[in-house]
Amino acid sequence: MHEWSVADAVIRTVINWVDDKKIKVKKVVLGVPSFSFLDVEILKEAFNIMKRDSVLDEAELEVKFKDLRFKCKNCGKEFSLNDVKDQIDSVRSEFGEEYPMHFMPALAPSFIKCPYCGSHDIALESQDMTIDEIQVEENGTVKTVSQG
Ligand SMILES: [Zn+2]
């Protein structure tokens, strides 16, 4: 499953970053694109099994969903899914709950137009998963490290 490779990647990344066995990782905050097909429960389960006997032994995984972002190729402005909520709502009322974008975010440009200039020439911004925050304990002190 996809969730297991994500958990594996997160754990490897954090272990590489820590690179010091005196540190204990307490918490990892993962930013996930809102339209990804990840099952958070499976992801956490995978994380909890794969973290054993590593610096992440006591770590808790927190998942935060990030809003989709688009960029208009015509006027260059960026906007989020929230900025075109009215358009999404009308697509949704036309197709019902199972509207196509739910399955294929790449289709979004066919349904959405730029809220600034009305162009349909829009691109989906890259939606990478990011480790937003790592909470570690070092010599009994807990500190939070933000990853940009
Ligand atoms: Zn535009």
Structure description:
This protein is of the alpha+beta class and 148 residues long. It has two domains: 2-67 and 127-146, hypothetical protein PF0899 fold (2-Layer Sandwich), CATH 3.30.2320.50; 69-124, no CATH class. The protein is 32% helix and 28% strand. The chain contains five helices and seven strands; from the N terminus they run αβαβββαααβββ. It has helices spanning 2-18, 40-50, 85-95, 100-103, 108-111; strands at residues 24-33, 60-66, 69-72, 78-80, 122-124, 130-138, 141-146. Helix 2 links the parallel strand 1 (24-33) and strand 2 (60-66). Helix 1 packs across helix 2 (40-50). Zinc ion (ZN) is lined by residues 72, 74-75, 77, 114, 116-117, 119.
CATH topology of the largest domain: hypothetical protein PF0899 fold
Shape: elongated
Largest sheet: 4 strands, mixed
CATH uppermost class of the largest domain: Alpha Beta
Uncertain runs? none
Number of strands: 7
Structural class: alpha+beta
Helix content: 25-40%
Strand content: 25-35%
What is the H-and-E element order?
HEHEEEHHHEEE
Calculate the mean pLDDT score and round it: 85
Query: CATH architecture of the largest domain, please?
Result: 2-Layer Sandwich
Strands side by side in the biggest sheet: 2-1-6-7
Using only CA atoms, what is the Rg? Answer: 19 Å
